[in-house]
Give the backbone structure.
Amino acid sequence: MKLNVKEILSGGVEVIRNHYNKLLPFILFVFICNLFTSIYGLTPSFMQSKPLINSLAVLLSSIIVIAATIFVIKLTLAIQVSINAVLSEQEMSWTTAYMKVKGKFWLYIRYAILVGLFFIPIIVLIILKVPYTTVINTLYGNFILALFCMMAPLVALEEKANKYLRRSINMIKGNYWRVWVILFFSSTIFMLPSVISISLFPGQSYEIAIISIVNAFIGIFTLPFLNAVIVLTYRKLKAEVVRIDEFDTIN
């Protein structure tokens, strides 16, 4: 089965349009975390003349950023659980969805690091200056992106088990270009404000922090859409894998 890119993207819009209120608690928590991370850019700008206070402020801001990042990852996994429940027409409170991803943070980090190791060949090709490195890296990089994005819902929605990486590879087999196209369009919407802010204010921490706050507001709408698209893609690919497994069993 080939993924229908238009169907997935329009399905993401429908999820947000019809079920946004069910995702609102997660989105508000993520928004608050993003506001806290913006402090990292604002604090040094106000305290440049006081080195000691500035150092302490940067340390505190760094701790806040790390804590907020951990919380955002957990919330993102919980958002995917909640979206999957909505698509399955199951009633699930936001607290139940969050509890379902309890203990999965380090599992997610572990597999994220494993996926990160796939970048080693890209680094080697760049160092060795192999011909057509850009083309090879683009094709291979698209595969890694598709692999990583399918791994996240696997961790969030499946029971704790091994072989998430292998299962993710099996899911995107034959569809990774379509997965990449889906992720390209959805993530472009998600990341565009940040890209614009960085290009407009390179190296200016105060301005970037202000833009980051604006981006946090925009993320109230783009974050659930991105996760809805990822979960819809996961469900389509999983259904195909299950169908193939059942066919192989029968035969």
